[in-house]
């Protein structure tokens, strides 16, 4: 076989609320890597005022059954009673399209909100990812420009997202392609 072997990809990931300091720090580092370095949307740091009230969610690669690294993240917040917003969805490049991490993060984000009384869940989705969300039962409300890039303001069909009250435990996802 030519070329270097593919990077190691854990066979299982846990998607959960970020409850440990290293999980919160790992989520911040992944966001900087994806939104500042890879996409160039922000200069140096992508943190904003929403982080003070948002609940961070992480996907952790597991090694020998132990959580090892933050490889995915999203955050949710409630700007007004019943209305929840998801933002800063990111999966580490080498973990994309291997373990449904993006879809699993979206699932826990919305299901955590529904467990907390959400009656409307929305997000500004980069247009190139709108199809991913449509497949997860989201619909486009309008198309807008944000950070100089085209976005869809989308809303989740909550009947597809039953409440998940135990976000601190989260759930395990299995990888399609493992090392
Ligand atoms: C968008 C992102 C989070 C998706 O994460 P991911 O872990 O690759 O997504 P998943 O593996 O859960 O994808 C679920 C399904 O949607 C598909 N999919 C993934 N990204 C897609 C896209 N942009 N458009 C259409 N389908 C997509 C996957 O192939 C998979 O399909 P399958 O189950 O038939 O194989 C990831 O690509 C990412 O971090 N991108 C950079 C950051 C970014 O753009 N964030 C803003 C999101 S609005």
TrEMBL record:
Domain N-acetyltransferase: 13-168
Alphabetic keyword roster: Transferase
CDD domains to which the protein is assigned, alphabetical: NAT_SF
Pfam families: Acetyltransf_1
Gene Ontology molecular functions: acyltransferase activity, transferring groups other than amino-acyl groups
Keyword Transferase belongs to the record: yes
Protein name listed in UniProt: Histone acetyltransferase
Species, as recorded: Azospirillum cavernae
